[in-house]
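## retry 2 of 3
previous attempt timed out at serialization; input unchanged, resubmitting
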Amino acid sequence: MNRIVRVLRDLAVTEPHRTAIRFTEGSSDTERLITYAQLDRDARAIANLLQRHAAVGSRVLLLHSSGAELAKAFLGCLYGGMVPISAKVPVGAGSHLSWATGVVLDADAPIALHDVASMPDVISWSHQDGLTRVTCLLTEDLPDDADLWTDPETEAPTTALISYRGLRAHEPRGVTIDHETLERLCAQLTESMALRAGDRFGGAFCRSGFGLIIYLLLPLSKGCTAFLLDEDASAGLAEHVARHRIDVSVGSLPQYLSHPAGDGADLTSLRWAGVLDWSGSFREVAGALVRRGAPAGAPTPFHIPSQLPVPLVDLPAGPRIQWRIVHPVTSRECEPGDIGELWVRGDSFKFSYWGKAQESAAFFDARIDGAGPGYCRTGDLVSLQDGELVFHGALADRLCIRKRIYSLSGVLALIRGLDSPLLGSAATAFTLSDDDDGAIVVSEVFSPSRGTAGLPELALEIRRNLQMKVGVALNGVVFVSPGSLQDHRGVLTAALTRELFTATLLDVVYEELDPISRLRCWSPSARIVDPVGAQR
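## retry succeeded, writing output
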């Protein structure tokens, strides 16, 4: 029996009536309370269901609308010796290349669990994509056969869970975490947070591998009560903390501050407050939270890397984590102050990609200059400034000019800050290769009747601002019609825009390209102008 299951079994016996999870769900903020005894019994029933349909060690997709039902199904997988994979419910028609389908095929998952609320979408998805070999099982209203559960310890896999995050359906990569690494991570986070049995642990629950670890396994393995806001709850995190007198919480800065009731919320109960999704100086982030009433020592940087499902706590000074800032192309350590990729190593960073040994070695056993100890690549761009790690966004959206890394978010902030009624709501920038001597900016514009009036002047202003303020030279400025830059999910990425650009699939209104970039990609429908403004 793995340690987490053993702890939950013991708590179900010694403190059966203690509340394990208190979920706030829905716009009406309905609360669902689950005791340790109920959670244990439901997990054993789900484990029995799984063992009737699949061999121990099978991968299981979790497709639940309810956070409370997802929690029970996740623990049921651990009790049953299965490997859980949490995913968003696939909604809508035409989902043959959906993310959930890519995950099922990559992980070779024979089972998909769901609740009553998600059942129509899950069944429709499985029929659309022809996944006849995947058995869809309902995890609610199960037979009361928990007493028949047997521990699959001798057959249980070393893999505890697989996390798929932010990847395209046609190239899914699942990060595996084994039981030993998971237990070590929970122990280290417990120490960092000074988490104690009986603490009230709060947060806005998310359904990724990170969310399952932080919001469920961590507090439950210590005998805490997890006070969780589901995704559709109307309450803000600050209000949630004040209402329930939370001791320890994890959430993004907007989650702490966004709800109107948070303005006067009493955050004095917080002993420790992990802050996600922050940028710039954390001193400023901590100050914003303290001004809302949090104790001065409570705010703590709590970063989730783009490509790892576990948190980095209190960097750069955090214990047990060795880190370096490395150029992502040359694998050489960056000079002080330069932007590079964050590489980390430590006892709780033992990962691999499911079924991809070669890629695992390149990403999770990366060597600086090809030598020395192995590091995990995080997929995040950072720099060290005044003793603080400053995060500059994901590596996937980097700007690499003459092998120097620039912050894409900083470039886009300058573009958005220009005072022009022509600028649309979306813009991005990219290079065609890491050896290019300049970037290409693509921005939506409002152009009446698709005319070009004012666009050459706007392009010149963009060039001047980027060159003067951040030292970024441009090989091109491309203006497209509103709505051109989002994908089918409404998401804008530099990588996708580059693909559309090189395939001449952007709806171009006006562009200025240097001769080399024009040779790589030429749009015959566009009005092409040299950077100096000579119309062709």
